[in-house]
Amino acid sequence: METEIINGLFALQDEGYREFHGKLMPEIPPEKIIGVRMPALRAYAKEIAAKPEARDFLQQLPHTYYEENNLHGALLSILYRDVEELLRQIERFLPYVDNWATCDMMSPKAFQKDLPLVYSYVKKWLKSHETYTVRFALVTLLGYFLGDAFEPEMLKLAAEVRSEEYYVKMAVAWYFSVALVKQYDASIGYFTFPALEPWTHNKALQKAVESRRIDQDTKAYLKSLKLKAKDLMGERGV
User: Fold this and answer.
1) How far apart are CA 213 and CA 81, in angstroms?
2) Is the Cα dihedral 82, 87, 92, 95 positive or negative?
């Protein structure tokens, strides 16, 4: 069954895209990348979701190919509408996620059905030692909890994340850059009285300043909050 699904992925292979996308994910060995564009992969997931082999495929971890992991994430969103079961399945899958793209492509619409339950998992995932489990928690906070479901304590939880992993630090920066757009009054204090690691602080400000949803006066103020080189030196242990 798994071979049939893999053959279906190879039938969608785009060699040019494989070479291009592989450069964006140096942590993934080239031989583990088939080269399937995401729209084609999502369409394939919908095509096979009703077949019995789709659920069999979800039980077969770990997978070999990058696109198998992406297909796994896409199928979870399609097949599991009950939020509690979906969260259990995602939690089972997260230890096998080994790159930012697979992590970030999982944004199940079903989460909206029970955000308090999702948040309880997010708080647990933030304490994980797995890079992409923590990143998924942060991306979930960003995607679902900066609107009506926002609570100020969420900023504190994100600010307390400490990691030397680049993709975790980038996720914290990304989260706070969007928080500055959507929850400015609650989040600006984390920059006027710096609560983030210096590199993450500056990266969040940079990404916020790049946003078209922030006016020019606010951008000028945010630029003034950038930490200087001497502050960054301390982070490197110099």
Assistant:
1) 33
2) positive
Distance, C-alpha 83 to centroid of its chain: 19
Q: Cis bond leading into 62, ω under 30°?
A: yes
Residue 93 is which amino acid? F
Amino acid in position 112: Q
Check if the beta carbon of residue 29 is closer than 8 Å to that of residue 66: no
Q: Which pair of structure tokens corresponds to residue 91?
A: 């939690």
153-193 pLDDT per residue, tens: 999 999 999 999 999 999 999 999 999 999 999 999 999 99
What residues contact 86, with CB distance under 8 A and at least 6 apart?
76, 77, 80, 108, 110, 111
Separation CA 23–CA 152 (nearest Å): 38
Phi, psi of 59 (to 5 degrees): -85, -10
Tokens 């960003």 -> residue: 142
- Output DSSP code: residue 11: T
pTM: 0.93
Tell me the H-state helices in the chain. Answer: 2-10, 15-24, 38-48, 52-58, 66-79, 83-93, 100-105, 115-125, 131-144, 152-159, 166-182, 184-187, 189-192, 198-209, 216-224, 229-235
Which single residue is written with the structure tokens 């199928």? Answer: 75
Structure confidence by residue, pLDDT tens digits, 64-87 = 999 999 999 999 999 999 999 999
Hey, what are 128's tokens? 């994980």
Q: Residue 158 in 3-state DSSP?
A: helix
Which pLDDT does position 218 carry in this prediction? 97
Task: Give 163's contacts (C-beta < 8 A, 6+ positions apart).
Answer: 131, 134, 169
Q: Residue 228: pLDDT band by 50, 70, 90 thresholds?
A: confident
Helix (H) or strand (E) holding 76: helix 66-79
